[in-house]
Amino acid sequence: MIAEGGADRMRVCDAEGCQNAFVDLSRNGSRRFCSSRACGNRTHAAAYRARRRE
Ligand SMILES: [Zn+2]
After folding, report:
1. In Å, how far are 49, 52, 53 from 9, measured between CA atoms?
2. How far is residue 41's CA from residue 18's CA, in Å, rounded to a whole number?
3. Integer-rounded Cα radius of gyration of the chain
4. What is the per-residue pLDDT across 26-35, written as a single tens digit (0 to 9) for each?
5. pTM: predicted TM-score of the whole model, two decimal places
6. Are 29 and 22 in contact (CB under 8 A)?
7. Distance CA 29, CA 21 (A)
8. How far is the first Cα of the chain from the last one, in angstroms, to the nearest whole number?
């Protein structure tokens, strides 16, 4: 196991057009966005719209 916290938890936001870095403090390290409310919702909404276009 890797020690909790620190540089190994550094992530870059997965949202399109967002380059924010953040520290993933979630227990399983699965966080993808600097802000799940802003970037997470935006990305999910974009994916939803993309699916509906097909
Ligand atoms: Zn972001």
Report:
1. 31, 34, 36
2. 13
3. 13
4. 889 899 999 9
5. 0.72
6. no
7. 14
8. 43
* pLDDT score of 3 more than 90: no
d(CA 5, ligand 1 centre) in Å: 20
Residue 2, pLDDT score: 54
State pLDDT tens for residues 12-30.
Answer: 999 999 999 999 988 898 9
Give residues whose Cβ lies within 5 Å of ion ligand 1. 13, 15, 18, 20, 34, 39
* Separation in Å, CA 47 to CA 15, 37, 54: 11, 15, 11
- CA separation, residue 23 to residues 16, 33, 41 (Å): 18, 10, 19
Ligand 1 centroid, distance to 36 Cα (angstroms): 8
